[in-house]
Amino acid sequence: MLYRAHPFHWVPAAGLRHASTDRRPDAALAYPTGTSVSPLCRQRLSADNSELAWLWSTCRDCDAEAHRIARTLHTPATERSK
Ligand SMILES: [Zn+2]
User: Which Pfam family, just one, is annotated for this protein (predicted)?
Assistant: First the structure.
């Protein structure tokens, strides 16, 4: 069965965990600290890849948008029109 990864990554920035569709640097597992990212909540933020940053709570706007994207990807076309 084909697994398609979600087209976004979680990125801690400005005290919240955001989701961004920005490409990460090659081979990076996370956006390095200081990377300029444009998360789903449409702010311009600087990534914070410190250890504690991953414990921040999720940005509500990014969470809602990430769920919408995930539903779009994983819902068969026949279900979408309901
Ligand atoms: Zn956000």
Answer: zf-HC3
